[in-house]
Design goal:
mainly alpha
Length: 122
């Protein structure tokens, strides 16, 4: 007669928080590296858009990571990071001429999309 509301079990909430925290930590680290690692200066010189693009990318990655930690902004954070990784994949394949290196960023993009789809379904 009466239906009970289906709520997420505590394990899936804990898993969600752990995955979001791990993804956030990784992208905050990736973003901060853009400001401190000389290797990124060289790579962004090869891209040819100027160093402002390196700073922009670092800010986007840090911001995307932080958005994952706020429950109502997770989708925005995942979208921002997935677009960044898709763009990085295209840059590796075209401007940098090293499509094999784009496999890693492509895998990150696919992983972020799959994580979003999994969250959406639950």
């Amino acid at each position: 007669m009466f239906e009970q509301a289906v709520s997420r079990d505590s394990r899936s909430s804990v898993t969600d928080w752990l995955l979001r925290g791990a993804i956030a930590a990784a992208f905050v680290m990736f973003g901060v590296e853009k400001f401190t690692d000389p290797q990124w200066v060289k790579m962004f010189q090869q891209i040819g858009f100027g160093q402002w693009f390196r700073y922009f990318t670092g800010v986007v990655e840090v911001l995307g990571g932080l958005l994952l930690l706020i429950p109502w902004t997770v989708t925005a954070g995942l979208a921002l990071l997935a677009c960044t990784m898709a763009s990085a994949t295209l840059l590796w394949a075209t401007l940098l001429g090293q499509p094999a290196n784009g496999i890693i960023t492509g895998a990150f993009c696919v992983g972020l999309v799959l994580f979003w789809l999994n969250r959406r379904g639950s």
